Amino acid sequence: MNDLVRLLGEQAPTMQGLLAPARQALDCDALIVWQRNGAILEVANAEIVELDAEALAERLEKSPIDMHVGKGLAGLCCAEFKALNVPDLRDELSLRVLGLHVVHQSFVESMGWRSAIFQPLQGAGDAVGVVAAYSSEVARFDSGSEAMLRIVGDRAVARLRPERLFEKLQDRLDVVGEVLLSLHDVINAAFWATAQIEAARDSLTTSPDAAREHLGHARSNAKKANKLASNALKLRGTKRPKPRRRNLYPILSSVVDDRQRAAKSEGVRLVLKCPEKVSAVIREEELARAVANVIDNAIEFHRLDTHNRDRYVEVTASSEDVTTTIRITDNGPGIHESFVGRVFHFGVTGKGSSGHGLGLFQAQLSVEAVGGAIHVVSELGSHTTFQLDLYSGTGGAT
């Protein structure tokens, strides 16, 4: 044991620098390290006798041995966070009695392996991977081998790529988030279509022209809802684009223009005050959606404020030093001070709102994901301002 510690050392610079001497010390045919990536175990590195790095890469490419957590021997070791010692990988009856199953049996047989031990890699309260030793001898490993493999595992954890641990899981969560937010957009468009139909019905007898205009807006929103629903069904696990420096004027102009009909139908003046050249580091579609969600909230709550006749929503953008600020201000009913701290929480909606508590939640996620910040200041019965602070991507004002 002491020889193993001395042989491995504390300063092995790479995973391969760790596995090569470890395989010799364990006197086994192969050492494989799997790293957890969400629900998948991926091969992080391996040391297999008589296979150089190029030959190993070719073998793994033809017969990949990644697996799901919970499946196979390595997957079970990871999921249940317990070591496994398998005396004979080809004794199917004994394996079934123990509730074990070799997923990549053809690969194991092609390598000539008969016995194996598996050790989970300890992360922050969870298994972050598995290290396994294989031998061509039956019942090759004992309790001493297990203790040695634990030392190898402790060293291996420090050499994993932590940014990969939950990357696939994050990708899947991003897709789920996109579906939820797309659903929110569909519901929003459908809501405004319904509001326009109600407005058309109310004005049908007094102003047929106004009724026709409302029905035109309703048709437009219905088409938009249909298009958004179609896009949501096409979502795939594509990665989010990287944040890039973009001119905000065309983005904000497009969002405001798109919301003008809804604002007009509610008697709200929607105004944009933005220089033609003001930039920020953003994900364009996400920022557009975030701003649109805040505007939609402001317009909807103006509907509930029947006493205010001079209704407005104003969108401004400015840049100073390295910060670009977008402010969305309305003179609606305001937000009670006891509620201000919860407006960005998932599923939280204001009294009388027809929303689902996704819009402002998404806005906060999108802004913070690019290193920005969003907060709200409100005075009940007077005004509300949502402020988005973003990195301008420059050293000074733009």
What does this entry look like structurally?
The relative contact order is 0.08. The protein is α+β, with helices and mostly antiparallel strands and 398 residues long. The chain is built from 13 helices and 13 strands. It folds into three domains: 2-164, Beta-Lactamase; 166-239; 242-398, 2-Layer Sandwich (Heat Shock Protein 90), CATH 3.30.565. Helix 1 packs antiparallel against helix 2. It has a six-stranded antiparallel β-sheet with strand order 3-2-1-6-5-4, sandwiched between helices. Strands 8-10-11-13-12 form a five-stranded mixed β-sheet. Strands 7-9 form a two-stranded antiparallel ribbon.
Topology diagram in text:
Layout: H1 2-8, H2 15-26, E1 30-37, E2 40-48, H3 53-62, E3 67-68, H4 72-80, E4 84-86, H5 92-97, H6 105-111, E5 115-122, E6 127-135, H7 143-157, H8 167-203, H9 208-233, E7 244-247, H10 248-265, E8 268-273, E9 279-282, H11 284-304, E10 311-320, E11 323-330, H12 337-340, H13 359-369, E12 373-379, E13 383-391
Parallel strand pairs: 8-10
Antiparallel strand pairs: 1-2, 1-6, 2-3, 4-5, 5-6, 7-9, 10-11, 11-13, 12-13
Helix pairs in contact: 1-2, 2-7, 8-9, 10-11, 11-13
